[in-house]
Design goal:
The complex is a heterodimer of chains A (124) and B (115). In chain A, 0% of the residues lie in helices and 48% in strands. By secondary structure, chain A is mostly beta strands. In chain A, strands 2, 4, 5, 6, 9, 12 and 13 form a seven-stranded mixed beta sheet that branches. A four-stranded antiparallel beta sheet of chain A has the order 1-3-8-7, with no helix packed on it. In chain A, strands 10-11 form a two-stranded antiparallel sheet. Chain A starts with a strand and ends with a strand. Chain B is an all-beta fold. The radius of gyration of chain B is 14 Å and the shape is globular. The chains are: A mainly beta (124), B mainly beta (115).
Chain lengths: 124, 115
C-alpha cells in the first residue's frame, strides 16, 4: 500500500499478559523500524529489519520483546508478560533504500522513514 | 552518538505571523536532518529533510528549514502561520556515514497558532 498500516489502533492488557502489534510497510520498502513513544513524547528506537532479516536490534529489550518480519506477512512486535512501563505508543516506519554500492563507495541511505499511525498499548 | 535538542517545549504564534521552531543537533559524521509533525492521535507526518545541497530546504504545507553547519542548527520556519499548523513538531537526525541507522528525535515542540 501507499501508507504504513498498523494494527490494532489501541490495545489494553493486564500486567503479565502478552501483546502483539502488527505493521505492514509501504509496498516496495525494504526497511522496517519500530519505535516506542513514551511519556513526554520521547522516542526510543527498538529494532529494524532489512526485508526479513534483523538489521539493528540495539534498542530491543531482550527479555520480553521479540519481533519478526516474515515474507508475505505483516511485521510483528510481541511483548511477553507486559509490564506497566510498556504502556506507550508503538510506531512502525518503513523506508526504501537498498544501499546499492557504486564502484568503491557505498551509496548512502538517504531515504525518508515514513511512519504508521501507531498502536497505543495500555498495560493495567 | 547523535542527539537533538529542541529548546522550546511550546511556541505560541498569532495566525498570519511567521513561525520558527528551533532545533540543534550533534552528530559525529554526516548529518541527515528531518522534520516531522504529529497531530493528536495520529502518526508522524514527514515535512522535509536535509541530506546535501542547498542549505534552505522547502517542504510540505509551506514549511522550510535552514541547515546551518557552523551553528549545528536546522530551524523550521513558515512565513505565515495557520491555525491548522497547531501540532507537535519533531526534529530528527541520523548519521549519513553509518548506513541505514535509526532516527534520533528531539523531545518535540508544541506549536499553538492563535486566531
Amino acid at each position: 500500500g501507499e501508507e504504513v498500516a498498523q494494527t490494532p489502533k489501541h490495545l489494553v492488557r493486564g500486567e503479565g499478559q502478552k501483546a502483539k502489534l502488527y505493521c505492514a510497510p509501504i509496498k516496495g520498502h525494504s526497511y522496517v523500524f519500530w519505535y516506542q513513544q513514551v511519556l513526554k513524547n520521547e522516542f526510543k528506537f527498538l529494532i529494524s529489519f532489512q526485508n526479513e532479516n534483523v538489521f539493528d536490534e540495539t534498542g530491543m529489550p531482550k527479555e520480553r520483546f521479540s519481533a519478526k518480519c516474515l515474507p508475505n506477512s505483516p511485521c510483528s512486535l510481541e511483548i511477553q508478560a507486559t509490564k506497566l512501563e510498556d504502556s506507550a505508543v508503538y510506531f512502525c516506519a518503513s523506508s526504501q533504500s537498498e544501499g546499492v554500492t557504486s564502484g568503491r563507495e557505498p551509496v548512502p541511505f538517504t531515504d525518508t522513514q515514513y511512519f504508521g499511525p501507531g498502536t497505543r498499548l495500555t498495560v493495567l | 552518538a547523535q542527539s537533538v535538542a529542541q529548546p522550546e517545549d511550546q511556541v505560541n504564534v498569532a495566525e498570519g505571523n511567521p513561525l520558527t521552531v528551533k532545533c540543534t543537533y550533534s552528530v559525529s559524521g554526516n548529518p541527515y536532518l528531518f522534520w516531522y509533525v504529529q497531530y493528536p492521535n495520529r502518526g508522524l507526518q514527514f515535512l522535509l529533510k536535509y541530506i546535501t545541497g542547498d542549505n534552505l530546504v522547502k517542504g510540505s504545507y509551506g514549511f522550510e528549514a535552514e541547515f546551518n553547519k557552523s551553528q549545528t542548527s536546522f530551524h523550521l520556519k513558515k512565513p505565515s502561520a495557520l491555525v491548522s499548523d497547531s501540532a507537535l513538531y519533531f526534529c530528527a537526525v541520523r548519521d549519513g556515514n553509518s548506513g541505514n541507522t535509526p532516527l534520533v528525535f528531539g523531545k518535540g515542540t508544541r506549536l499553538s497558532v492563535i486566531a
